[in-house]
Design brief:
Shape: extended
Radius of gyration: 38 Å
Distance between the termini: 75 Å
InterPro entries: LRR_dom_sf (IPR032675)
Helix content: 25-40%
Number of strands: 20
């Protein structure tokens, strides 16, 4: 707009608005809001009607003259706001963020988003996966494409069409020969070309997650995959029958031989839906695992897991086994105990507690977690063997129903235990995990609590206990709340009781599943020193 055009616009606006204001003032003298509310509608004269009609016609004429000017002003204001935004963006310090820092910001943004959408955790090279921050500007797009870690997590779904994978090779180039985190959702189907490209890069797979082991059967993998840098392997195995993949002796079932060439593999997590048949499972001989997690939904005999555990026993440092249901246990009295010289952490859930019968006392085991154990005549003797774990310092009992006399007797053989956690997470275990007998057995004798000494307890266990955590589903009586309070306070201050030196309980934490009930038991003390 030229200066002459701007001056003409201003004159038109001043003239038009001045004329309109005069007309509006004339109208308001005859018709106003107050006249409409309180005036007599039958008292309007013909002269007033004619005057209002003339003013209305004049206002409409002026309006038609002002509308083009108004639209021109609106266009100008829109451009002003847009240009102001552009100016602010152009001068913003965000545009001057170093590329290295911008790359880290992108990685943090993706990590936060993936925590909210776990199903897309390995979706970086998924055909429809797009990063919105790469659309902000050319620089941001260039930084995103140059940030290798944004593209090294690869998710290969079982597509029936090859169309989404036409650019897979280009996408794979973005990884720049960096280690890959691979997830396979099922048979490759129409995406076989992408699978072939991915197999060519198997030498740099760092982690492998397999949602369906069928994608690694003989139809998809003609020969074992070379995985020289693989560190972590996670898989879901539907059904192991004990017939397929049996070795020459007909004894062991070898499910993972296509992944046998993985000398650096250390972490393995396996989720078995079902194991049936007499065959026992075995890992490829080159594997040397330090962390092993096994979850078994159902099986005929959980003993099928023992050969795998025995095979990895010399190198295992952390073992977690969860057996939800099984048909029967077979006790082999002639079986040689499994020695785990380097095991530091052990977790047994459900029927997996049968493992205690097969383990020699682990010399370095410091942390033990037992979960969902119901007192069972077959498992009881094995669970009681944890009293021989001399290095144990941390014990977690979650939804564990253990006879009080046996539990206290086991505690008395664990003088080094420093941390104890007992938890009820289900209404099915109310008052069964922490009974009054157990509370009384853990209470130091002869200690003043609220002005009264506790009952003598010469066999009170765990003299070196310094941290205790109790989580109950409910605390149904005031008597039980008082027993918990008495037990905790009796151990808060160290000292000698019945000739035994007890360390002070530095940390005591108590909680309930029902927060409303927790308020009712608010007198139970908690502390951390």
């Amino acid at each position: 707009m030229t200066p002459a055009e701007a001056e003409e616009l201003q004159r038109g606006l001043r003239k038009g608005t001045s004329t309109v204001h005069v007309l509006l003032d004339q109208c308001s003298e005859i018709a106003s809001t107050e006249h409409c509310r309180s005036g007599d509608p039958y008292a309007v004269t013909q002269m007033e009607r004619n005057c209002l009609a003339a003013c209305t016609a004049s206002i409409e004429a002026e309006e038609q003259l002002l509308l083009p000017l108004l639209r021109h002003l609106q266009t100008t204001m829109t451009r002003i706001r847009k240009q102001r935004t552009i100016n602010d963006a152009y001068m913003s310090s965000v545009r001057r963020i170093p590329r290295e820092i911008l790359s880290e910001i992108f990685l943090i943004a993706v990590a936060l988003a993936d925590n909210k959408r776990d199903s897309e955790r390995y979706g970086s090279v998924y055909p429809n996966r797009k990063y919105n921050f790469a659309k902000v500007c050319r620089i941001w797009r260039a930084v995103a494409l140059d940030t290798t870690a944004l593209w090294t997590s690869i998710f290969l779904p079982p597509f029936e069409s090859t169309r989404p994978w036409t650019n897979f090779g280009y996408r794979l180039q973005r990884t720049k020969k960096q280690p890959l985190d691979v997830r396979l959702a099922g048979r490759t189907g129409g995406s076989s070309s992408a699978w072939d490209l991915l197999l060519q890069e198997s030498y740099r797979w760092r982690t492998l997650v397999v949602d369906d082991m069928a994608c690694l059967d003989s139809e998809s993998v003609a020969q074992p995959i070379a995985l020289p840098t693989l560190e972590t392997f996670t898989a879901k195995v539907d059904i192991v029958t004990g017939i397929d993949d049996v070795d020459a002796q007909g004894e062991f079932c070898r499910v993972f031989d296509n992944l046998g060439e993985a000398p650096q593999l250390r972490h393995v997590e396996l989720d078995f839906v079902d194991i049936c048949g007499p065959a026992k499972l075995r890992f490829p001989p080159i594997w040397q695992l330090t962390h092993l997690e096994l979850r078994l939904h159902y099986c005929d005999r959980p003993n099928s897991l023992l050969p795998m555990i025995r095979q990895m026993a010399p190198t295992l440092r952390k073992l977690s086994v969860n057996v939800l249901d099984c048909e029967q246990f077979l006790r082999d009295h002639n079986a040689v105990l499994i020695h785990v010289p380097n095991l530091q952490s052990l977790s047994c859930t459900g029927m997996a507690c049968f493992l205690f019968q097969h383990f020699a006392p682990p010399p370095q085991l410091t942390h033990l977690r037992i979960e969902s154990y119901m007192d069972h005549h077959f498992l009881r003797s094995g669970v009681e063997r944890i009293s021989t774990y001399e290095a144990l310092t941390e014990l977690e009992l979650v939804d564990v129903v253990w006879r009080a006399e046996s539990l206290l007797s086991t505690f008395r053989c664990m003088p080094r235990l420093a941390t104890l956690k007992i938890a009820e997470t289900s209404a099915d275990f109310v008052s069964q995990c922490m009974s009054g007998t157990v509370l009384a057995g853990l209470t130091r004798g002869g200690v003043d609590v609220h002005g009264a000494p506790t009952s003598p307890n010469p066999s009170c266990p765990l003299p070196n206990l310094t941290r205790m955590y109790i989580q109950l589903y409910s605390c149904e009586t005031a008597k039980k709340a008082a027993a918990i309070t008495s037990m905790a306070l009796s151990r808060k201050v160290g000292g000698i009781s019945d000739g035994v030196t007890f360390r002070p309980l530095d940390v005591f934490d108590f909680g309930l599943h029902d927060s409303i009930m927790l308020a009712a038991t608010g007198d139970i003390p908690c502390w951390a020193t």
